[in-house]
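Data follows
____________
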Amino acid sequence: MTDDAPLASLRETILARNYIKEKGKVTKKEKQAVIVYCSPSGSTRHISRVAENKLEEMKIPVSMSDLGKREDMSPIFSQIREAKNNVCLFIGSPVYVSHAVPPVMKFISELPENTGAYAVPFVTWGGASSGIALYEMGTALKAKGFRLLGAAKVLALHSMMWQSESPLGESHPDAQDDKMIEEIVAGVMKKLSEKSPKEIALSDLAYQPKQVHAEMEKVTLELAKAHMPQRKVVEELCSKCGVCGEVCPVGAVSFSPFPEFGGNCILCFSCMRECPENAIKADFSPIEARIRARAEKLSERPFTKIFL
């Protein structure tokens, strides 16, 4: 397994959530940050940790939670309610089929309203298209009364090309991407210290051409499922260890006794990527050609960009 081992992740989450309480130094008037993300393939987690490290370097109290662990988010909601306009929420998602993943949008829909808090949505994308995820996240956050101090899109290894010899987004996020994240974190926290922080315009996040934006609005994860690679469990290889269920960010894997994939699956393929026996198979070659064609057609630039 990777650094996402359940015990380590649980320990990290507990420590992060208790960071402010344990330090015993943070009051409601002191500036603080919350980082919440979903990262089936690890790229968004990487960016979240870069942000966390920068905040700690700046002596800003920060708590961090992984939505993929499917834990109770009420402590985060309480923190935001109590801190009000002294807290900034950094909320991250990979881009799947032009959109933010369902766990992220669900989290935003459950956020407390009109707290006066600030937010910074950020996404990782695999080089085909960053879609309209940032715009949709920004719209949902503003509907909850959050004020947008910044946003970011970051190039990352395409989540369906980890087996490819020349994947889109190879070697990303890289040091330059990390540097840009550190830059936006520093800029956002500087804004937060000002009397009237300047927000970014929601229109800045609608950077796709209008026709392309409209087409992306029509495409959904459910519609895309029919065109995605179908997984097959090789029973002779499967030890029924349960790892695929542990790493699923939405709890879509059940066992009877071999793994089965439910309708709420978001097609992150973590089950396949993390299987220690390589017992879950899928043929990505047909979709890889379509992904490369899409990347060439849309030719989105710049790959990584911060909005500040």
The chain has a mean pLDDT of 91. Residues 221-298 form a domain with the Alpha-Beta Plaits fold (CATH 3.30.70.20). Residues 109 and 167 are 34 Å apart (CA to CA). DSSP finds twelve helices and twelve strands in the chain.
